[in-house]
Design a protein that fits this description.
CATH class of the largest domain: Alpha Beta
CATH topology of the largest domain: Rossmann fold
Number of domains: 2
Order of helices and strands: HHEHEHEHEEHHEHEHEHEHH
Largest sheet: 5 strands, parallel
Shape: globular
Number of helices: 12
Strand order of the largest sheet: 2-1-3-4-5
Number of strands: 9
Distance between the termini: 43 Å
Structural class: alpha/beta
Length: about 325
């Protein structure tokens, strides 16, 4: 952790999450937005969850939440939806997730769906200016997005509960802010050292999405090579080049058949450092990914601090070319 409390915007935003999540649950405005969104989804034959980067991870978990409610929900990247669109019917609905309400292909996906006459919903920041939106939190001031991700997940969970997801009940939703506070107070990641070469994170089911999100945070905040995998995919070839210079983090919530533990044990037998991170909160697996993600956010912050990196300014140099980021905007 940084030597000064809240020394970076990233740290302040990570620590803000319990209060921001509680405010989201308590917001009459958000509850109304979710009620109106659920009415639109009731008419939908299929639901397409669309996002880019971290928002694509939210789309994947959001789709799983809606699937638990018995809905046909599918996550796709914004660019894929625009350039190589799946077969979308007139009775389908589209949920576009964007932290900033500015992402080029996300806006193009919204425009495309709107012009086709589909029910369109956005999950985005406050004061976005878009109708038919669930607005979660203020625009983040660190380019390593954290609170906009966890609030998007909570909003999607609230939406899934509204349309019938059995495990996502009001009492379980109410536990999320406190579970995140517990994760911040004791992350369970403090003993994970910076690897000499590569950090690899694995998980099963919804935790495979959290693995990818955690790896992305490490890459952004600490500028350290990191990868996130589904544990089965990892075993089928991706583990081959790992050496003792690497570090494996095994996410154990969930691990119903012991597969993640089996892979972790094999890595240890190959001399690779292994850390296990689970989520002890009494939450269903999908909701447990919210505090579990926060544990990895804290890992990325600690790695950034130890490596002397600025986690608030991530996109620099030629990667920050406005022309590059505008490709895919509506009308281009």
């Amino acid at each position: 952790m940084s030597s000064e409390l809240g020394a970076t915007n990233l740290e302040r935003q990570i620590r803000s999450q319990p209060d921001v999540l509680a405010d989201l649950l308590d917001s009459a405005t958000v509850r109304q937005q979710i009620h109106e969104a659920s009415e639109g989804l009731a008419r939908a034959r299929r639901i397409w969850m669309v996002g880019t980067g971290t928002s694509q991870h939210a789309a994947a978990l959001g789709a799983a939440m809606l699937q638990e409610a018995g809905r046909s929900a599918h996550a796709v990247s914004s660019m894929q939806f625009v350039r190589n669109a799946p077969i979308v019917g007139q009775q389908d609905a589209v949920i576009v997730i964007t932290h900033t309400a500015e992402t080029a292909y996300a806006l193009a996906a919204r425009s495309l769906a709107f012009q086709a006459g589909l029910d369109v919903l956005m999950v985005t920041k406050k004061k976005s200016g878009f109708p038919d939106a669930i607005e979660t939190c203020e625009k983040e001031t660190s380019e390593t997005y954290t609170v906009s991700y966890t609030t998007a997940l909570l909003a999607l969970a609230m939406l899934a509960a509204q349309v019938g997801a059995e495990s996502i009940t009001p009492d379980k939703l109410a536990l999320v802010p406190g579970s995140v506070r517990d994760a911040i107070e004791a992350s369970g990641t403090d003993d994970i050292g910076v690897p000499g070469r590569l950090l690899t994170i694995i998980g099963a089911g919804p935790a495979s999405v959290t693995a990818r999100e955690g790896a992305l945070k490490v890459r952004e905040a600490a500028r350290l090579p990191a990868e996130g995998f589904d544990a089965e995919y990892f075993l089928h070839g991706s583990a081959v080049p790992l050496t003792p210079d690497d570090q494996l983090v095994a996410l154990t919530t969930p691990d119903q058949d012991g597969f993640v533990e089996g892979v972790a044990h094999a890595a240890e037998a190959e001399g690779i450092g292994v850390a296990r991170v689970g989520e002890p909160a009494p939450l269903p697996s999908l909701l447990a990914q919210i505090p579990l993600t926060v544990r990895l956010q804290l890992l990325s912050l600690r790695f950034a601090t130890s490596r002397g990196q600025d986690p608030d300014k991530v996109i620099v140099g030629a990667w920050d070319d406005p022309g590059l980021w505008s490709i895919g905007s509506p009308g281009t």
